[in-house]
């Protein structure tokens, strides 16, 4: 009998979840006794809200690290069990040459971000000495594209290896400003569970993680196969060659080539630095111990 796990994604199913899709289609979860249900973001609720519902189901979610930190700062019983990406590809993009001296020209500009990008914007504003009222910040969902191409916004939150490639395919040249270049060096697509369920079901969750990481290795070794699955099974409309390019670009964010970490592994010192960033910029009101974020068994 297989164990049911529900995984709530914080976005639609696309190449940034290629490892999950590959493992699903290869029946790797089933072979490890896991009945995995992947639930894409509905565009409304925070995915961590589903983890906090009263339920004995094993529920996991993928979130940007800042949302997890915010939840834990508010006393919510959540923990990170792994990270999809060793560094965050989050950033901003603009039409080509619109910001030749970025970020000096930000004042009075309109920025479109997702809710998980507000911490990034907060750090950027602090770096350049701007108040929140100096910018027109709007939050958007998965339907961001029209606002960007029609110039209803000046800057758009992006993943460096996804949205800019899509927009360039449409014939628009863009400049990309990665957040890591202004000190936003954080984990991305963190896999989260409720603390009590992580303790109770540690073995099966570790099995899930192991299968997922192997799925990523297979996806990178067979890019054409995984992109075909995304197009045929999950109705991804991006051209085939564009998605292969996205997958190739994704690889450098999943690996930490300097330290030799593969997707999934987390480091105590990096979490300490991340939490210090959020505390110093006023995003959280107290300095959190990394052990409150991650079980010691998941730290390097």
Describe the structure.
The protein is an alpha/beta fold and 300 residues long. It has 12 helices and 10 strands. The protein has 2 domains: 3-87 and 186-298, D-Maltodextrin-Binding Protein, domain 2 (3-Layer(aba) Sandwich), CATH 3.40.190.10; 90-182, 3-Layer(aba) Sandwich (D-Maltodextrin-Binding Protein, domain 2), CATH 3.40.190.10. It has helices spanning 18-25, 28-31, 47-52, 65-73, 118-128, 145-149, 163-169, 195-200, 202-221, 223-234, 240-254, 268-280, and strands at 3-8, 34-39, 58-63, 78-85, 90-95, 110-113, 136-139, 155-159, 174-178, 188-194. The radius of gyration is 19 Å and the shape is globular. The model has no long low-confidence stretch (mean pLDDT 90).
């Amino acid at each position: 009998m297989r164990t049911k796990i529900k995984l709530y994604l914080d976005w639609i199913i696309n190449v940034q979840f290629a490892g999950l899709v590959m493992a699903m289609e290869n029946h790797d979860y089933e072979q490890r006794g896991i009945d995995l249900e992947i639930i894409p973001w509905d565009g409304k609720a925070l995915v961590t809200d589903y983890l906090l519902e009263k339920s004995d189901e094993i529920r996991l979610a993928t979130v940007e690290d800042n949302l997890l930190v915010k939840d834990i700062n508010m006393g919510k019983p959540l923990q990170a069990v792994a990270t999809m990406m060793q560094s965050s590809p989050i950033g901003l993009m603009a039409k080509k040459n619109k910001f030749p001296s970025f970020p000096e020209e930000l004042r009075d500009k309109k920025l479109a971000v997702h809710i998980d990008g507000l911490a990034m914007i907060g750090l950027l504003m602090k770096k350049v000495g701007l108040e929140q009222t100096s910018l027109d910040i709007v939050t958007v969902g998965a339907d961001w594209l029209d606002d960007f191409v029609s110039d209803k916004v000046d800057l758009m939150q992006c993943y460096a290896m996804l949205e800019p490639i899509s927009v360039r395919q449409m014939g628009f040249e863009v400049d990309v400003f990665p957040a890591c270049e202004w000190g936003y060096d954080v984990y991305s697509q963190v896999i989260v569970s409720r603390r009590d369920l992580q303790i109770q079901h540690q073995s099966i969750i570790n099995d899930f993680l192991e299968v997922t990481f192997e799925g990523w290795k297979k996806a990178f070794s067979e890019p054409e196969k995984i992109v075909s699955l995304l197009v045929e099974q999950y109705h991804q409309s991006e051209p085939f060659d564009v998605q292969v390019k996205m997958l190739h670009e994704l690889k450098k964010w999943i690996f930490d080539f300097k330290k030799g970490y593969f997707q999934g592994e987390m480091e105590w010192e990096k979490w300490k630095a991340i939490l210090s960033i959020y505390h110093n910029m006023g995003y959280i009101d107290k300095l959190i111990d990394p052990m409150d974020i991650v079980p010691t068994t998941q730290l390097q």
